[in-house]
Specification:
heterotrimer; A: Rossmann fold; eight-stranded mixed β-sheet; two-stranded antiparallel ribbon; 13 helices; 18% strand; B: alpha/beta; Rossmann fold; 16 strands; 38% helix; globular
Amino acid sequence: MTSTLVENHFRIGKLPHIWCPGCGHGIIMRSIAVAIDELGYDKNDVCVVSGIGCSSRAPGYMDFNTLHTLHGRALAYATGVKMANPDLKVIVITGDGDCAAIGGNHLIHASRRNIDITTVVFNNNIYGMTGGQYSPTTPTGEKGTTAPFGNIDRNFDLCNLAKGAGATYVARSTAYHANMVKQQVKAALENKGFSFVEAVSICPTYYGRKNKKGDAVSMMEYLKNSTVNVKAADKLPKEKLEGKFLVGEFYKSEEPEYTEEYKKIIDSFQKER
Amino acid sequence: MAKNNVKLMQGNEACVEGALAAGMKFFAGYPITPSTEIAEISSLRLPKVGGKFIQMEDEIAGMAAIIGGSLAGLKSMTATSGPGFSLKQENLGYAAIAEVPCVIVNVQRGGPSTGLPTSPAQGDIMQAKWGTHGDHPIIALSPSSVRETFDLTVKAFNFAEKYRTPVILLTDEVIGHMREKIEIPSPDEIEIIDRVQPKSGLEEYKPYEVNEDQLVPDMAPYGGEYRFHVTGLVHDETGFPSNDSNVAESLLNRIMKKIDNNIDDIALYEEYKLEDAEVAIIAYGSTARSAKSAVDMARAEGIKAGLFRPMTIWPFLDKQVTEVSKKVDNVIVAEMNLGQYVIEVERAGNKHTKVSKCCKANGQLITPDEILAKIKEV
Amino acid sequence: MSNQCEIRLSGSGGQGLILGGIILAEAALNDGKNAVQSQSYGPEARGGASKAEVIISDNDINYPKVRECDILLSLTQLACDEYLHTLKENGVLVIDESVKTPDRDDIKVYSLPILKTASEKIRKPMVANIVALAVINQITKVTTKESLEGAVLKRVPRGTEDINTNALKEGFNLVNA
């Protein structure tokens, strides 16, 4: 039996999805749909844009206006969509390679402009679609098919990156914390500006196998046991934070939004007439 | 005093005026010489007509943004030169396969690489056709004057909308930067074509379905009555990806044929003193101006020369070039590169006439004297 | 072709020669003629030897660049040295008085205090280009006075009309004197 959520927000005919058994992406995709559902948006007013990679297949399953673009370019396309029609709720679904490597420039500039786009990164720490190469978020020392001796790159903290570049809502959750993903996506969509939600996913097929992380269940357990909410982190002694990463809302601020600022320019000429 | 609509205008400015006349409402781009004035003037003019301008973080983003803007319903344009045109290619292929109307202006400058940033060239002829990977349809137009820059920009938008395809306006540094007299036509003299939107109230809108009486699929905007999916993957009439070889073949056939079967509609060219010509110059863009002078100079010396000037560079005007080749003893292709368009002319004309070239790629416009010398040589 | 006049305005970057070229071309349009204007781009447009070129004709203008010119204006020695050889036989050379009169007897040379008139008489060095246009016009009649005045007033910044009208007048007078 399909749930009403799936029936109402997904393209049933396109399911089942192509993701591997145990992949965390489906959970995150569902959380986005629940967030939209709970906010009561008209589906015709929502445009979901993606790039290339495992995560970027999500829009094909989601029953909204959907745009599957080129590797790394989702935010640039989304910027055009949002500029052309600011009434649309524009969501970008992207991956760690898509948004932080090939699309890194678009990410920092969309953040800087504070254009009203909600970006959700399905961060599985690996290039899955091409078979397991290390990405900008693969932790130093971990392996990928292009890092057979261990990755010597330092990995990005995507939330710090987005915050530093000017995003006005920044949060992190994981595929284990499905409800937190939903809450953060809701808050992101309600933020008038550029919102960045990093949803840490799991890739048992490539990242998990390459780095001996066990099966999908063990990887989920890792997400559960290795995360500390940012609200609790301050009160915890340093040793309790060892080997853990933070989840929760990191940053929120009100700043002028790009398309609204542009509208003021247009309006100034309309008054002149 | 000159009439009100008679102005001294730069080619790049005329391009923006043409775009606005055609209904451009969105421009996204990145500064690069010698195309920058197009971005500057667009930024000044668009908000005054309710349109929008954005300077993106790079050339790639400029091209991506106009595809997004067009999908959301606005007539969109970007402009670039030299290395910037190379960076547009990835997304240009996307616009071709996803059939997104948009206009890309390339004010050609000397290359390769950073090359000669402030000097003219016509070295992107082949790149305009083959720059993005894979077989794909393309329309490219090349103006020879400021007024024609206006006219062909309007045409570029019209072709983009009519054929749902990216259209490249291939101008060059000479035409882009020179100021010349232009009489701006009044709006009622300008034909404007808009994309066909699907009828309201359809039970199902298939974004890539083409009925027999249609040239291209109807195009709905994001945020309108219908929800739909767009991808750069091979897709069927529903817009969703498919690995089926039959789907791939029929999609590619359809998008190629919409251009190939309509070359007569897209073919724009000028014939000058060709009726009794024994030698024909083929030249386009700024070089055609020199060629016209050379024809007059040759005629003054009793040499029967003529000019065929394609404004439509792609699709290649096979029929017309073949006709010209049959009429004359010699064809000379003059272009500011080391021989690009001439390859196509040779293909079409070699069995009918002798084809030679008058080429230069040193950042200088080919002069009438140089072309005249070539006429005397052949 | 004989009715085609090719003009090269040369000097240093910042002397307003490009605007001068545009005004001259617009003056020609005011006369109902054709005109093409082009200029140097890149770093040289911001210092060093700078030039603007104008072709005026009753007919269509094909080749848009000035090769050998009929009229050459040089406001600096550097520009004169650079472009003198491009002036046709029987051509008109207009130089600022600070420029050495060149050793060519096949041309007509007019050496006039263009820069000084702008800086001392009008007390606005930036109108040297307008003074020069008036001088060229007075010598060559390449456009009518009225058309030149119309073109100047259309292009100059609002509020500077009087200064520029004055610059034109002083320029015309330089030749009459």
